[in-house]
Automatic annotation (TrEMBL):
The keyword Transcription applies. Keywords: DNA-binding, Pyridoxal phosphate, Transcription, Transcription regulation. It comes from Candidatus Scybalomonas excrementavium. InterPro entries: HTH_trans_reg/aminotransferase (IPR051446), PyrdxlP-dep_Trfase (IPR015424), PyrdxlP-dep_Trfase_major (IPR015421), Tscrpt_reg_HTH_GntR (IPR000524), WH-like_DNA-bd_sf (IPR036388), WH_DNA-bd_sf (IPR036390). SUPFAM superfamilies: PLP-dependent transferases (SSF53383), Winged helix' DNA-binding domain (SSF46785). One of its GO terms (molecular function) is DNA binding. This is GntR family transcriptional regulator.
């Protein structure tokens, strides 16, 4: 493990952690820090550079996020970037812990049988909606959903179920968690 040294005064108007991250990234890309090489601990590097541990931690976090380094629990940080194919650099491939299974029938939400999905019709309708309602789509959506959709749902409920429901009584949300939050606001925090 080599000790890294960087001139902090040269950072210009960049944040300190950003400058440190960029220096380390360039050293990895230039091969000054090799693949598999152990990096100094956060405390050691912070002490050597005269910066806070949080600065080094933020720089390491950005390198981790972009795949230049990996963290091994209780061992430290290691470079995870190889020089392959005549100077072209490629990120190391990771194996995921979880794999997608193919089922004959999948009753989970958001599972579309792609081979039967009418993409051409969907694309045509999307273009029409975007063309007709360009300004309306840029406006902020009311907290209880778009009025046109609420009216259409109210009409559908009347035609198919015989229910007379005001569009103002219909609330459209972006998921069950959001709607649970709305219900809590509506009934109050002490409702069970």
């Amino acid at each position: 493990m080599k000790m890294l040294t960087y001139n902090i005064e040269e950072r210009g108007n960049k944040k300190l952690y950003e400058y440190l991250y960029l220096c380390m990234k360039h050293d990895i890309l230039d091969g000054k820090i090799r693949n598999g090489e152990k990096l100094p601990s956060k405390r050691t590097l912070a002490r050597n550079l005269g910066v806070s541990v949080i600065t080094v931690e933020n720089a390491y976090a950005q390198l981790l996020l972009e795949g230049y380094i990996i963290s091994e629990e209780k061992k430290g940080y290691y470079v995870n970037y190889e020089d392959t194919f005549g100077g072209k650099r490629r990120k190391k491939q990771f194996q995921t812990k979880y794999t997608e299974h193919e089922y004959f029938v999948d009753f989970c939400a958001n599972k579309t049988p792609y081979e039967f999905f009418p993409y051409s019709i969907w694309a045509k309708l999307m273009r029409e909606v975007l063309t007709e309602r360009e300004i309306e789509l840029l406006k902020t959506v009311p907290f209880h959903g778009m009025e046109g959709l609420r009216i259409t749902i109210a009409e559908h409920l009347y035609e198919t179920r015989g229910m007379t429901v005001s569009p103002d009584c219909i609330i459209i949300g972006a998921g069950i968690e959001y709607l649970y939050g709305r219900l809590l606001q509506l009934f109050g925090k002490h409702a069970v």
